[in-house]
Design goal:
It comes from Bicyclus anynana (Squinting bush brown butterfly). Keywords: Nucleotide-binding. It is a single chain. Helix 3 links the parallel strand 4 and strand 5. Helices cover 41% and strands 22% of the residues. By secondary structure, the protein is an alpha/beta fold. It has seven helices and six strands. A six-stranded mixed sheet has the order 2-3-1-4-5-6, with helices on both faces. It has a single domain, classed as P-loop containing nucleotide triphosphate hydrolases (Rossmann fold, 3-Layer(aba) Sandwich).
């Protein structure tokens, strides 16, 4: 049996690139062809990571950004250790909506660690998109959060760094790690009980 040690949720308006961010991180790939279909509810994936010399299973929930799925999306906030709220620097609407996602998250998980993620940095760098969101406003807003990363799912810039920062912060948090250790002990007990009940089967 296995269980995720840390739960990360991705929030943000539709089309800001949440799914691309997750796939770049987990599978090291980027789809430059047909756009991804809109996420319904949330899509889940996991990756094994290291921090402070230890291995951890990290679960990532890529939530829907469409308003019509909001009621469904909220249930995925429960138990989240960290949240990545995504926006596009070339979309003022996505930045305005970002504040809504943060408020929604705080009503469910007040102590969740929050990180801002500006996606599609490659479009700004190449001049294919123009900045609409003022950098000073972003800097001021992000001061009350755990970090702000400018990422590109196309090139991979700052994607691994973002997720590694989150895991490192969780490992450094004694309250979070206490919960992780308690969950691991419980899992070991459940696993032992399961094996004892099915002792006639081979668990090779």
């Amino acid at each position: 049996m296995s269980r995720c040690d840390f739960k990360i949720v991705l929030l943000g308006s539709e089309h800001v690139g949440k799914t691309s961010l997750v796939l770049r991180f987990v599978n090291c790939r980027f789809n430059s062809g047909t756009p991804y279909q809109n996420t319904i509810g949330a899509a889940f994936c996991a990756k094994r990571m290291q921090s402070n010399g230890k291995d951890f299973n990290v679960g990532i929930w890529d939530t829907a950004g469409s308003e019509r799925y909001e009621a469904m999306t909220r249930m995925y906030y429960r138990g989240a250790h960290a949240a990545i709220i995504c926006y596009e620097a070339s979309s003022q609407a996505s930045w305005t909506r970002l504040r809504h996602w943060l408020q929604e998250l705080r009503t469910v998980e007040e102590d969740c660690k929050v990180y801002l993620c500006c996606t599609k940095k490659d479009l700004l760098d190449s001049g294919a998109a123009q900045r609409e969101v003022d950098e000073e406003i972003v800097a001021t807003y992000s001061q009350g959060l755990r970090g702000h990363f400018l990422t590109s799912s196309k090139t991979g810039e700052n994607v691994d760094e973002l997720f590694q920062k989150i895991v490192d912060d969780c490992v450094a948090d004694m309250r979070v790690m206490k919960g992780v250790e308690e969950a691991r002990v419980q899992l070991q007990k459940e696993d032992a009980a399961y094996r004892a009940k099915h002792k006639d089967y081979c668990f090779c």
